[in-house]
Amino acid sequence: MNRMKRMSRRAWLGGAAALAASAGAGALIGPIRAQTHAAPRSYRLEAVEIAARTWCVYGAQEDLSRANGGAIANAAFIQTPDGVVVVDTGPSKRYGEALAALIAEQLPGKRILRVFNTHHHPDHVFGNQAFPREALAAPQAVIEAMTAQSEALAANMYRILGDWMRGTVPTPPGRALNASREEIGGRVFTLTEMKGHTACDLVVRDEETGLVFAGDLAFLDRAPTTPNADLPAWRASLAALRRMERDSLLPGHGPVDPQGASLDQTLDWLDWLDGTLREAVARGLTMNEAMAAPIPARFAALGVARTEFERSVVHLRARMEEEILNGIPPDRL
Question: What's the pLDDT at 6?
Fold first, then answer.
């Protein structure tokens, strides 16, 4: 019975924790970022071309805050012969509307054909409301997670961002993706379901440019977030991304990555995090003692490293305790 209560509480916390942990980020990416202003509540978004007829609006590498309006994740759009494909929509209705307006200005007369949601975290998908419902698409597991956790995630977003969220209603896609390849408006995309950052992470590859949209499976120059993380599955997905043919990769947070540095950096962090937390459990450290562990010098430049590490202790410690203690013979408990 106690175990059931713990699992129920953990499941409930998962929705709320997803918001807080997806907020982590790091130093600004050079001069390019989504700029926000406190008054009036409006986003000033810049589109940076990162591949042929492909643009990114870089998120500020910071925690969610009223200073940045929650605009911390990357959003991208691709021009096809017949319209536009969007990858992720940002944290709010206002952001989604600003992104849609930017696309209309950049590509006048081009209609939105498809909007891919890479995973269910709100900094990536709460702008869905500003786009045609029939264009929104994600794997069924992403849709289910968005639907199940939307109430808790929205409550936290409103609490953190206040008036930036005015009018925002979580809007899960109505289209469940069930194909591995899709031609949209004359441009072909390969769709791969992976997992690890969440229970379902969509990876989109543009066949024309070889650009891979990795979502939050990859982070560059900031510490990864772990509210729904499965570390072994995440490592396996990083290995699959490394094997995937690509010309460049766009992480969910951080600059476009032509060399795969985001994959190496993310894996390095996950390996260190896993080892550090397991050692803390084995030594019987309290949660506060575990949070005080030093951050290795090689991660000193990662944005929000200390904050994300502390969040990860909260997210992962209980699960690791169960795994480790369940592996001890009963006569030694």
Answer: 36
Model pTM score: 0.87
User: What is the domain extent for residue 76?
Assistant: 2-332
Across the beta sheet with 181-184, the strand order is: 181-184, 187-194, 201-206, 211-219, 248-253
Q: Is the Cα torsion angle 56, 30, 244, 120 positive or negative in sign? A: negative
Q: 3-class DSSP state for residue 138? A: strand
**What is the tally of structural domains in the chain?**
1
pLDDT tens readout for residues 229-274: 999 999 999 999 999 999 999 999 999 999 999 999 999 999 999 9
Q: Where are the alpha helices (DSSP H) in 244-304?
A: 261-282, 287-291
DSSP 132: -
Q: Which two tokens stand for residue 129?
A: 């409301």
Query: Encoding tokens for residue 67?
Result: 């200073």
Is 306 exposed, middle or buried, given 0-12, 13-18 or 19+ CB atoms closer than 10 A? middle
Q: Contact at 8 Å (CB) between 88 and 58? A: no
Q: ∠ CA 212-213-218 to the nearest 5 degrees?
A: 100
CB-CB neighbours of 17 under 10 Å: 22
Give the CATH number for residue 309: 3.60.15.10
Q: What's the helix, strand, coil split of the chain in %, to 5?
A: 40, 20, 35
Closest CA to 203 of 193, 195, 211: 193
Q: Which helix (H) or strand (E) holds 4?
A: helix 2-22
In this predicted model, what pLDDT tens digit does every residue of 157-195 receive, in sequence order?
999 999 999 999 999 999 999 999 999 999 999 999 999
